[in-house]
User: What shape does this take?
Amino acid sequence: MAGTETPAFPLAVATRFMTDSKAGFAPEQHPIANHGVIGDMRTLALVAQNGTIDFFCHPEVDSPTLFASLLDAEKGGYFHFGVEDGADMKHRQIYLPDTNILITRFLGDNGIGEIADFMPLDGSGRILRTARVIRGNVTFSVAVLPRPRYGLAKVHLNPVKGGVSIHWEEDGKAHTAYIHSDIPLRIEGDTILGQVTLGEDDPRHVAFCSGRATSSVDADYVKQSFVETRGFWHRWVASGQYPTYWRELVVRSALTLKLLTSAKHGSIAAAATFGLPEEVGGERNWDYRFCWVRDAAFTLYSLSRLGYHDETTAFVQFLMRHAIENDADRMQIMYGMDGRKELTETTLDHLSGFKGSQPVRIGNAAYTQTQMDIYGELMDALYISSKARGKPPYHVWEKIEGLMDWLAENWRQPDMGIWESRGEPREYLSSRLMCWVALDRGQRMAAMESLSGDIVRWRTERDKIQKSLLNEFWNEEVGAFTQYKGARGLDAVVLLMPLVRFINPRDPKWISTLKVVRRELVHDCLVQRYKNLDENSDGLSGQEGAFTTCSFWYVEALARSGFVSEARFMFEKLHAYANHLGLYSEELSTTGDHLGNFPQALTHLSLISAAVWLDRSLTGHHTDPDNVQYQNIEDIDDYLSRH
Assistant: This one.
């Protein structure tokens, strides 16, 4: 059946389309979890379950937003493509298996329609959206409200052949984009509108085109791009090595991590968004669209466990260009996706924020912090990669050697810790632990690959760090390793101790620590990073939710400590906290709602690591050194009584 289009109105005629909910689309803020994500390894877009793109930075993931109604329904802008009177239809979202192509399906008594959303990987920066009807007749509507430069730029819309052009100025430069469609579009004020009723076998598309002429975006191009994009993701997944258990969940996490990588620069974003709150109504609203050395290195570690190593090569080249070449003895903790070093933190006071959570921050002042742990994460990733790919190029190792020499001299420095405290500098366990990792992996690589380096000194300083951790960070009264030197409070980062092979997971001190962590920070399968008390204040008001990364660290720590049955139970319970597509944000509220930026790389990479270790334990690739597999965590007391 041919589509029945709504005639294009004269541009000067005003209607009630945006004010009468029965006549068209009304913007709203969707829960963080109610989104899928699409991308092209340059930027990403969030797609709500009703077909609205309500967050999209253009042209890079850390560029200003073009659509951001997720942060302000009225001022942020949106790109809606969904069904008319969609409230009367059920919504479903799925990914085509082993791809980042998102399908949003609308199901009603009179018909079933769906929209396929994806970004082609041809460097065009386009968003392609195709509607089709599976059964009956379905009316689709288009409503596009561009709000460039975080909603601050004035927009000019003009009709062009096959669509509408969008013009604005940013940083003194003129910018142009297009909305192209084979659905007739009209302009009303600053909004682009369209509507069509479709029957079966009559697909239509709407495309966002980045500064390109619209004539090339026709139905054939859209169809061919779909086939090529699907093929790319299928080939990428097929080249990996996935666990027997939970393959689908791990594949989704790997695909999400891949979307956060930059094909152009080799950098890796910590998350796709900024300003989403760790506590609704609170001030913990950060910008995570940058490349943290820590998060990127953890990402590489997880991808390497699945057999992906090209990303490590690209990231090392990124660091060589921007982080190490000019400052051989130091690295910043984070960089812009293009390598820029200044990430000045400011607030967007004109945006109301997600559910009123202000301030809405862009940039991140943490880029000026000292965080000594970053060297450990980087060296661990390089160590894993070197075992698969061989020794690094000499010019790379020469710079790494300089970093190790500097670290051997400076590992005692107090800093702001892995969680980027905005309180006082301290000697954090996280930093001391990862300095141990850096020197340990450095001397191992030098010996294993016959590379140059002061191995004796690195090993000597590594052993000093070991003694410091075992003696200065152990609190006998608490019965655990604590957050920082001389503290009583716990930090879930302690769960990394067996994961990085610092301590035997059956060591009584470790088992005792695990017991205290369970008592103080764990609620079922949900784990807090730390308790923000007077002693370990992070310099910010309010509290945060359960940190999902720490939950997966807890699972892996349980498995490594012999509590495999308990670890599997906790891991499978955590699945229920993923959203409908298997995606995770940074944190979970006390009611299980997603909080913080989304999707969060740190969560997905820790999921992969936990899944791989659990899978190997369950399939017999990891054996218990004591030939003991405890059934549940309560058996800790039995273990401690015998050791």
Observations:
- The two ends are 76 Å apart (CA to CA).
